[in-house]
Amino acid sequence: MPCSPREIGALFLFEKLSAEQLGRLCGEGRVERFEPGPVYAEGDPATCFYVMLEGTVVLSRRVGGDDVEVSRTSQRGVYAGAMQAYLGDRVRQVYNNSMRVTEPTRFFVLPADTFASIMQEWFPMAVHLLEGLFFGSKSAQRAIGQRERLLALGSLSAGLTHELNNPAAAAVRATATLRERVGKMRHKLRVISAGTYDRETLADLIDIQERTAERVAKAPVLSPLEASDREDELSDWLDDHGIPDGWRIAPTFVQAGLDLDWLDQVAAAVDEATLPSAVGWLSYTVETELLMDEIADSTSRISHLVDAAKQYSQLDRAPFQVADVHELLDSTLLMLSGKFGQRIKVVKEYDRTLPRIPAYPAELNQVWTNLIDNAVSAMNGAGGQDRPGTLTVRTARENDRLLVEFGDTGTGVPPEIRDRVFDPFFTTKPVGEGTGLGLDISWRIVVDRHHGTLRFESEPGDTRFQVLLPLTAPAPDDTPEESA
């Protein structure tokens, strides 16, 4: 269609241009008429800059599997398309949204290359300012994003160190005590071997020792009342048979699952004079078994924590893989357990029938970390130290997507800031405690990287952030996110 310099000169975008400049625009651009339907699609190469002359235009963004309308207008002069063409090859030139028209609509269309050259020729200072703003914002966002990840890493490292210290210290204490007990057991064995025992009696003692070790491994869990009653029984038996320090030995025997029948078997195997030495020797046997169980439990917990750290970081796994979200959630909760303390209760409501999903697990762990950290902060600010909080992590299936929900009993998100929570650099935390990028990064990981949805519902005492992830996914795009 013919291009009129007078018509495009009446648009607010071009109203300050000279007649010569308007003539050049008409000469290098064109006017096109589009029937109702799509004009361009999000993600396609950005080849043109569009300025609406008349009609109605609708802009939308792809969120998960849905096209979400972000703008609808009939205002003359609105523009869209290759608006960053002036940046050239330094930025991937694709359409950032989809555009369609709902009625016959005319556009002034300028090729992206022409738009870029005209911008640089006519507005060189403006181009430099825009470049500085664009790249400066990206650089600041990247730097602060890295700081946020370092802060999170420091917090996670502190929590992991604390969690590792407890079982490690327990293993060290148990090892030192075990060394002492083994030394005393050797001494008792020497005393017994110096006695007048025949081979059959010694064999009986060794048999009782073996069966004692087996009973320790299968010791029942008693209630405090049951344990107290049994300790009284064993203590009385030991006192009646002249065993010194029966009150000290009895709790160890009860913990090992030993009872009066077992003591009677020991008494039947040896004579009365050597019974104290035999019981003492078997007491050390029980203690060594219990200490070895404690060491095994401590080292197993350390191994579990290391596995959780590997699961969280995904260092030894492919970036894109089919993953179990429950494993990811558990590893993140374990890594962040130091933040919960005694005041925050964690409730897991998992639907274990949910399938594994294709995802970037390390990035999802970053999302879980950001959402859990925000929930803990909200609860720490709710009612002080005397009021407990509850973090509820729930998974479920919602149509063809997997839902992960983080609920907290904190102060809630005030209505006046709900439209801004996902904005970059927006934070309600005190200066120095938050960068304002946690939810922005989470949004881009969930929406842009996984084609999912991130939303929330909030009222005081009940805030729920929900992540919806597709059960299936297209071929992965391994281009790294700038903030992921």
How would you characterize this protein structure?
With 484 residues, this protein is an alpha+beta fold. The chain contains 13 helices and 15 strands. Helix 4 runs antiparallel to helix 9 and helix 9 packs across helix 10. The longest helix is centred in the first third of the chain and has 70 residues. It starts with a helix and ends in a 14-residue tail after the last strand. The C terminus is likely disordered.
Number of strands: 15
Terminal-residue CA separation: 46 Å
Q: Give the helix/strand class.
A: alpha+beta
* Main beta sheet strand tally, sense and closure: 5 strands, mixed
Helix count from the secondary structure assignment: 13
How are the strands of the largest sheet arranged?
A: 10-12-13-15-14
Shape: rod-shaped
Unreliable stretches (pLDDT < 50, length at least 5) are: 382-386, 430-436, 478-484
Mean pLDDT across all residues, rounded? 78
Order of helices and strands: HHEEEEEEEEHHHHHHHEHHEEHEEHEE
Helix fraction, binned, reads: 40-55%
Rg: 36 Å
Note the beta-strand portion: 15-25%
Considering the chains and any ligands shown, give keywords for the structure:
484 residues, alpha+beta, five-stranded mixed beta sheet, four-stranded antiparallel beta sheet, 19% strand, disordered C terminus
Question: Would you summarize the structure shown here?
Answer:
With 484 residues, the protein is an alpha+beta fold. It is built from 13 helices and 15 strands. The strands form 4 sheets. Strands 10-12-13-15-14 form a 5-stranded mixed beta sheet. The chain has a 4-stranded antiparallel beta sheet with strand order 1-8-3-6. Strands 2-7-4-5 form a 4-stranded antiparallel beta sheet, with no helix packed on it.
